[in-house]
Amino acid sequence: DAEITQSPRHKITETGRQVTLACHQTWNHNNMFWYRQDLGHGLRLIHYSYGVQDTNKGEVSDGYSVSRSNTEDLPLTLESAASSQTSVYFCASSGGPNAEAFFGQGTRLTVV
Amino acid sequence: KNEVEQSPQNLTAQEGEFITINCSYSVGISALHWLQQHPGGGIVSLFMLSSGKKKHGRLIATINIQEKHSSLHITASHPRDSAVYICAVSVGAQKLVFGQGTRLTINP
What we know:
The complex is a heterodimer of chains A (112) and B (108).
Chain A: E1 4-7, E2 10-13, E3 19-25, E4 31-38, E5 42-51, E6 54-57, E7 64-66, E8 76-78, E9 87-94, E10 101-103, E11 107-111
Chain B: E1 4-7, E2 10-14, E3 19-25, E4 31-37, E5 43-49, E6 52-56, E7 59-64, E8 69-74, E9 83-91, E10 95-98, E11 102-107
């Protein structure tokens, strides 16, 4: 069965460290998204990609970067982790604008 | 004002009750999604709709494009339905804009 997986599921890191969260999907979807979920804010878009070599900034992209070298993967990098980036991160993929979205299980990141 | 508003924010009901969660949006959309998130869990897509009504088991979703409003109904609610229900809309270039979610608790 096709799926979307995130790793790690939980991570604790120190302020200032570079961190990369992995997202891998086997749906062969062109569209992939990274969101963060915080109490009081709901889900907010960090970065997204519509295909290989395509990346775009979302509403809360400062301090984050992504790269898309193949269809399956969209890793999210925190260049220099800050306590404000403590959050739950969700990766999602979809086949198009009117297609169902599939979400990973989430990564709980704590920056200490 | 958020582009997607859900009501109520919290809802507690007894097992067996009929549940309605509402979603209003203020932007033009290509589709609306209802998502479910159990505590500590991932996010699961329940429905995607752009018109009319869809039904899956005890869950029914409706949308009124003219009024920019959607509802999610749960019939014969059960404690396992306890979760956060999130309304999201597809706006423009395929991105999703999310509501704040409705926390539903069904007591036995």
